[in-house]
Amino acid sequence: MKTLRIEALLLLALTQVQCAAVPEVRVGPSGLLGEGTAFETPWFDHRGAKDGPTILITGGMHGNEPAGVAAADAIASWTVKRGRLVVAPRMNPPALAASQRRTPGLEGSLGDLNRHFPTGGEVFEGVATDLWELFEQVQPDWLLDLHEGYAFRRLNPDSVGSSIISCADPRAVELAEAMIAAVDATIVEEDRKFTLLRNPIESSFARAAWENAGVPSMILETTYGKYPLPEGGERRYSVSHRARQHRLMVHTFLTELGMEPCSSEVLIDPRVTGERVRVAIYDDLGASVGGAKGLERVLSEYDRVETRRVCSVDVVAGSLSQFDVVLHPGGSGSGQANSLGEAGRVREVEFIRSGGGYLGVCAGGYLAACNYPWSLAILDARTIDTKNGNWRRGRAELEIELTAAGLGLFGDMDPNFDVRYANGPIYAPGEREEIPDYETLAVYRGEVAENGTSKGVMPGTPALIRGRFGAGRAVAFSPHPESTQSLQHFIRDAVLWAAGRD
Ligand SMILES: [Zn+2]
Q1: What is the pLDDT of residue 106?
Q2: pLDDT in the model for residue 389
Q3: For position 3, what pLDDT does the model report?
Q4: Interval 463-493: pLDDT, tens
Q5: Confidence label for 340 from pLDDT (cuts 50, 70 and 90)
Q6: 223 C-alpha to center of ligand 1: Å?
Q7: Cα(498) to centroid(ligand 1), Å
Q8: Strand partners, 310
Q9: Are the C-beta atoms of 378 and 474 separated by less than 8 Å?
Q10: If you average pLDDT over residues 195-222, what whole number do you get?
Q11: Which of 22, 71, 130, 436 is deepest in the core (most CB within 10 A)?
């Protein structure tokens, strides 16, 4: 973590040096595509201090391919010493909002934005025209378009998942081979390794770049579909894990071109400071897919908060040092602890101890507790009524009541209301000397006691708690306020408190 901190400081120092020569400070977007339309989306422009190639990187053409967006969001924060990086992370906002491949409301070939760029013809009207205008304005030397396939190419040759689709340019093919070698070095299983394919599909942005404008291009494809497990069943890589593969391929590309990019571990602009709060959302095994996505959506409503998803490898690599708060969503507490591993858990505890913030929702609340061999012990809270390992009290809308401290944090409101509960932790003081006592923000008034759990245990126990740990702060929510529209600000308020911005 220390080395990354130093690296971030170095980046900052380098940037300041660069800014003396190049009067560009890139905080926030450099421009908007489709301004005033449903397709309005930012693009980012970074110039290195020295001459070099111009690279256009695009993501989010298809709304059901989130890893390309997550990677492009991170890459939009990268710096290079030579050349220029232009990044448009989310090209199709309506499809992304709907989490579907095709643009909502458009029929036939019109629905697929990546079929709007015919070879030898005019690009389609609308967002494709805006994209092509950006392309002509930037005059890139290269185009990299980030996508995802539904299946691993080596398991299902009908899909382009886990491949690089290169244009016919020999230098592009050579670079694609180096990029594949770099990402394959991180994959043990032969059938999940990458494949080099040729010729991006007709009417795609990448095909038009090469055939209509002579600009070499590649489509980078990770895989959102599942792979079979040797012990039976199947699993998929998390969005953050797939985004990590994209970052590694793009980083190899920039390095091969001599652009001297910053570390591929950079996820968020180190200059995004001041009022803004940077939140890492844990998105790996044990975190529910819907939970991470839901919390990301809730926080995207707030201008002061910027989020990135992180996987266990990111955490172990020290990436939390780039953030103010780490957020653990619902799912399984022991599952998240397992995927973090011992090394990841040590990083998390060290992050909070040295001044970072923590918010755990439901499973994330189990992870913060002090009574499991795998829990982080950053709150002096133990979970009770766990006899026979039975933590499943059930799911229900339950009444909770805010304390004075809760009203202070979440604002003036009726202190009693219902909130969604889904097998969250039931807390009691942990009585661990070395951890400061927690403060109760709300208590349960209602109860659910299914699956053989004890009745009469839950009412009066803490539902929302917060505490200090070292120089940092931790908050745990047993229920899910983010599931109720009028309570979604609880997530923001807790994040701001955990970040020390109250
Ligand atoms: Zn795609």
Answers
A1: 87
A2: 56
A3: 38
A4: 999 999 999 999 999 999 999 999 999 999 9
A5: very high
A6: 10
A7: 37
A8: 282
A9: yes
A10: 97
A11: 71
Report pLDDT for 189.
96
CATH number of this structure's domain 277-498: 3.40.50.880
Q: How far is the CA of 95 from the centre of ligand 1 (A)?
A: 11
CA of 149 to the centre of ligand 1 (A): 7
Using an 8 Å Cβ cutoff, are 123 and 129 in contact? yes
Whether the pLDDT of residue 82 is over 60: the answer is yes
The two tokens of residue 379 are 């709150």
Query: From its phi and psi, is residue 98 left (phi > 0), alpha (psi between -120 and 50) or beta?
Result: alpha
| CA 343 to ligand 1 centroid distance, Å | 34
Q: How far is the CA of 90 from the centre of ligand 1 (A)?
A: 12
Q: Which residues have C-beta under 5 Å from ligand 1, the single-atom ion?
A: 62, 65, 147
Q: 147 C-alpha vs ligand 1 centroid, how far in Å?
A: 4
DSSP assignment of 387-439, as one string? GGG-----EEEEEEEE-HHHHHHH-SS-SEEEEEEES---EEE---TTSPPPE
CA of residue 221 to ligand 1 center, whole Å: 8
CA atoms within 13 A on the CB side of 216: 15
Q: Please report which confidence band the pLDDT of residue 166 belongs to, taking 50, 70 and 90 as the band edges.
A: very high
Write out the two tokens for 126. 């609308």
Q: Compute, in angstroms, the gap from residue 80 CA to the centroid of ligand 1.
A: 27
* End-to-end Cα separation, the chain, in angstroms: 26
Reported CATH class of domain 30-256: alpha beta
pLDDT of residue 30: 87
- The alpha carbon of 172 and the centre of ligand 1 are apart by a number of angstroms equal to 20
CA of 67 to the centre of ligand 1 (A): 10
pTM value is 0.91
Q: What is the model's pLDDT at position 25? A: 39
- Give, as one character, the DSSP assignment of residue 11: H
Domain ranges of the chain: 30-256, 277-498
Span from the CA of 150 to the centroid of ligand 1 (angstroms): 9
pLDDT in tens, 88-108: 999 999 999 999 999 999 887
Pairing of strands 195-198, 163-166: parallel
- Cα(109) to ligand 1 centroid in Å equals 14
Task: Provide the 10 A C-beta neighbour count for residue 401.
Answer: 16
In the reported structure, the alpha carbon of residue 62 is separated from the centroid of ligand 1 by a whole-number distance in angstroms of 5
For residues 71-85, average pLDDT: 96
Domains 30-256 and 277-498 share a fold: no
Distance 391 CA to ligand 1 centre (A): 41
